[in-house]
Amino acid sequence: MKRLERRGQVRERRVLVVDDEPDIRELLELTLLKMGVGVSAVGTIGAARDALRDERFDLCLTDMRLPDGDGLDLVRHIAAMGRDLPVAVITAFGSAENAVAALKAGAFDYVSKPVGLEQLRTLIRSALSLPDPAGVAPKVRRLLGESAPLQQVRELVAKLARTQAPVYISGESGSGKELAARLIHENCSRRDAPFVPVNCGAIPEALMESEFFGYRKGAFTGADQDRDGFFQASNGGTLFLDEIGDLPLAMQVKLLRAIQEKRVRKIGSMQEEPVDVRIVSATHQGLSGLVQSGRFRQDLFYRLNVVELHMPSLRECREDIPVIALSILDRFAAQSGAPAKRISPEALEALGRYDFPGNVRELENMLERAIALSASDEIGREDLQLAPASGVVPAAPLPDHLDRIEREAILAALEKTGFNRTAAAALLGITFRSLRYRMQRLGIREPDTA
């Protein structure tokens, strides 16, 4: 196992093991020593506190129930010390409540009894490969803006990157939920493994199980070869489930089991296979409201909503609109190879007064349209085509208003690409499948070429 260098000196990686069962302590100690990691093993919280005072550790492995207290007490004690020390909790077998409680308290991860050695080794490697906290901030700066809500988001993203806890990202459509999920992944110990985004609302219900868990050759008509699902594709990395509120109840049951057991079974297979996946989910709908209405399982919500990250709307960050708009214009220019267009002060002022029901995605679509409409190298107020009464609630219900905006953006992309759906999807920054689903939902059809 890699050692740490501090001011020209090499320091051995060290792990603190806290468990009152001698057999478990010996098993953990032997496993760590074989991995080339130094170990200090104690049997009580009091002894652990003494060790933490006298030594420096890179990971703490603690049992949940100890003679003089609870493992969560140790998690909180380490957090109160201000130590950047990941803590993994060993919980009783099958105790989902203990696992969630540990993660909510700030634990890095958990492992269930009886302790599985491969799962244990994976956890240890993940914890010891966490990036230096000093290296997190520059990447998180991709969340542009200096408003208080965005600063809070950046701080929480940096903290979440140092745990394995499931994260639920809430926020309106177009507010940057997938960007936040990517930033959590890029700054965590799983950064070198795949990040797999999935739009749950774009998958036909009949195909969901095969898409999520894969299938074996011959499992059904058309299955001419083995195929991995989303869980296998993201093994070792992060699975981002966008619009998870659209999952049907039957699929929610299967997803819950996969998350709890950390194992999946391909369609047509008799064997389950282990998967090591961090789940980050998101939706613009209120999941708690879906639970109350019976459309979303409470036990699944409990497992997904360990930590909630709320993405603010653009109207909550009005002072950031100019810097975000200029960044979007620079990105469009880099993609097209043309010089970036300027934006007039009057146009920036108008953007600052607009409410942006579609958030950053609407701002991107608006600026792309303005680039096409502007005859000069500067975007003016008239090029934005803003409604005269900016700031007024739309006459149509918000879902209808957002559908209209989405329809206009899709039609503009299709016209720009000559109705090449693959190119239009790339232009919009979505998958071909997602574009096809959205076109069907909005009733957009290709022109009759006959």
Describe this protein's structure.
The radius of gyration is 25 Å and the shape is globular. The chain has helices at 22-34, 45-54, 71-81, 96-104, 117-128, 136-140, 148-160, 177-186, 208-213, 230-233, 249-261, 287-292, 298-304, 321-336, 345-353, 359-373, 398-416, 421-428, 432-442; strands spanning 4-6, 9-11, 14-18, 38-42, 59-63, 65-66, 69-70, 87-91, 109-112, 167-170, 195-199, 238-242, 263-264, 273-274, 278-283, 307-310, 342-343, 378-379. The protein is an alpha/beta fold. The chain has 3 domains: 4-128, Rossmann fold (3-Layer(aba) Sandwich), CATH 3.40.50.2300; 135-310, Rossmann fold; 316-442, Helicase, Ruva Protein, domain 3 (Orthogonal Bundle). Helix 4 (96-104) links the parallel strand 8 and strand 9 (109-112). The strands form 6 sheets. A 5-stranded parallel β-sheet has the order 4-3-5-8-9, sandwiched between helices. A 5-stranded parallel β-sheet has the order 11-12-15-10-16.
Question: What is the fold-level CATH name, i.e. the topology of the largest domain?
Answer: Rossmann fold
Number of distinct beta strands: 18
CATH top-level class of the largest domain: Alpha Beta
Biggest beta-sheet profile: 5 strands, parallel
Query: What's the gyration radius in Å?
Result: 25 Å
Strand order of the largest sheet: 4-3-5-8-9
Unreliable residue stretches = 1-8
Backbone shape: globular
Helix content: 40-55%
Give a quick summary of the entry:
By secondary structure, this protein is α/β, with parallel strands linked by helices. It is built from 19 helices and 18 strands. The strands form six sheets. The protein has a five-stranded parallel sheet with strand order 4-3-5-8-9, sandwiched between helices.
